[in-house]
Amino acid sequence: MEFSRKLLSTLTAGQSTDPGRTAADATAFSDESLETLRLNISNPGLSTASMKDNMLRLIYGEMMGQDVQFGAIYALKLAQSGQTVGEKRAGYLACYLLLQEGNELNIMLINTLQKDLTSSNYHHVVVALVTLCNMTLPDVIPSMVSHVLTALTHTHESVRKRALIALKSFYTLDPDLILPYLDQIKDSLYDPEPSVMSAALGFFAIAVKDHAGVMKELVPALIKILQQVVDGKLPKGYLYHGMAAPWIQIRCLMIMAQLGHDDLSASTAMTPVVLRAFYKASQGVDAAFGVLFEVLRTLNSFHPAIILELCQSKDSTRNPLLAIPRFATSTNPNLKYLGISMLCQVNPDAWSDAWWTEDLLGAVVQALESRDAAIQRRALDLLYRMLTLENAQNIIDRLVYAFFQEQDGGLQGASSQQGSASSSRMSEKRHQPQHSQVSLPFPSRKEKILGQILDAAERFGPSEEWYLNLMFDLLARGGTAITLQTAEKVMSVLERGKFTHSCICVDFFFSTSSLCSLWYPLT
Amino acid sequence: MIKSVLIFNNHGNPRLTKFYQPIDIATQQALIKEIFQLISKRPDTVCNFLEGSQMLGGQDTRVIYRHYATLYFVFVVDESESELGILDLIQVFVESLDRCFENVCELDLIFHFKEVHDILAEVITGGMVLETDIGDIVAAVQEAGKLAKKPTGLLAQKSPF
């Protein structure tokens, strides 16, 4: 807190003493200077030091959205012939930004990387590995794997930890490339350097997602690591606000969550150490909350028997569920958000009346009315999970209300203030010529709520007439969130229910203007 | 996994952008605008988490940010990351910047552009947390800074005589 205030004062001070400079700098990178830059870097007599400066301007230009493709060859040259590590770094950084798959320069990049990876100067190895960590070029990576595996046993820890992250990046790109070497990578979990061990955990946190089955033998190692961290065996530098290495704990817990999923014996073996982490964290402040949250997530991912047993306990040191109300009822918006998120994580079978106190229910109701759109959305997701036959109608009504409140497309989480829709549309239009090829590849919030409503209505709808009325309303006023898929889904529900008034149904579909426009292209 | 780290000022001008997955430049700029529009509307009294960027991963992504005076520090992460862990990580990153620049301000980010990239690379690499020990981060950056001034190529090995 004290730190933030200090930073706050310096940041504002920095601006007030030199008000024009920031604004000037932002506009400094015009097309004109881009032209100068192009001339500068193509000068063959340029020293590598001034090439580095030009390269940094190039990277800056890229950040500002300029097209600086012309710099690729010079970036590669700088990476190759840089006299200092800093020059090499700048060259590689630009290479990473400018080289795409299939570029004919990639073969040169491979050569440069190989040379640096086998260099006796460990700084060069580090620079090459950092480049590989961010690398996504499928025509470069396969030839690098053996070099990176060799780097796993390098004498310097900063090489080892980066090698592990490079392997993680390779794994995300093509798991089959790395899977044969799992045993070799596993050894890094026992590395004496905590930062290398942490990087190895990072690798397994990714790899375990699809291959939990073949990684069960990690369980004892993870238990040991978490035990050591919780007991404060790591160096002092890893303490964060009094909490022992929260990031390493969180990573361990994430892997455990995957390993214990639907596996009773693994879950049972890991539960004691997870509870130990819970116990330690529940005594801490601030930084400990992240670990607490992860403990809850992990226990809920374990075999259901674990959480069902723990939730019986009235002892707050044994029953992690009892920690949640403290978050959900908090006045701190971050903790409140996490509290509601935690409630979403808990298996509904573990809910009990003793736990759902008035306070907790009040907190959820309050969150539903919250002016913070992020918290409100979390509460809606929770509501969806609370669906039962008795409360279905109320909850569906609330979801429908939220559905119509939500604006079409774009702008997630913007507080639903008046006028924001029109202003955003205007700004979109303004930028359209520039970014016309940019599409929105992911479903919007509105479509997600729609999915929840359709599902809830299908499972809990009291009558066909009610269902029909609801669908009519949604289809008529749903705007762009309604697609042909939505209509098809509704139709299939109606068909399965052997709908008695099918003529009305067809009638009503075609009378809906939004649907007519949907079907138009088909005819 | 961390998908992207963005720093921009109160006017939405980018000061540092880092993407840990390949994204073409037009989408990058649109994404920065999208996220700035989302965040700049939020008062400081609401939570620091947002759901879903439609440009980068949809509903499963989380946007986690901190606002320091004139700058927004924004991390876009997938659903497997811990929200509070990332929030603390932003603090570690900013504290590291502050130690390296001694009272960091927005101008430092512009005029020491490369150092900021180097510091970020010590904290996060390839979308993964690499180091959280602030002492180690600062030491590594300072060591790299010293090396930057000293040639390590052929010239350095040449005998002065």
Automatic annotation (TrEMBL), chain A:
Compartment annotation: Endomembrane system
PANTHER family (alphabetical): ADAPTIN, ALPHA/GAMMA/EPSILON (PTHR22780)
Keyword line: Membrane, Protein transport, Transport
UniProt main location, coarse: membrane
Pfam family, one: Adaptin_N
Protein known as: ARM repeat-containing protein
Disordered as annotated region, ranges: 412-440
TrEMBL record, chain B:
Intracellular or extracellular location(s): Cytoplasmic vesicle membrane; Golgi apparatus
One GO term of the biological process aspect: Golgi to vacuole transport
Membrane topology: Peripheral membrane protein
Membrane spanning stretches: none
Sequence similarity: Belongs to the adaptor complexes small subunit family.
Protein name: AP complex subunit sigma
Domain of life according to the entry: Eukaryota
GO annotation, cellular component aspect: AP-3 adaptor complex; cytoplasmic vesicle membrane; Golgi apparatus
Domain AP complex mu/sigma subunit: 1-147
Keywords: Cytoplasmic vesicle, Golgi apparatus, Membrane, Protein transport, Transport
InterPro entries per the UniProt record, alphabetical: AP_complex_ssu, AP_mu_sigma_su, APS3, Clathrin_sm-chain_CS, Longin-like_dom_sf
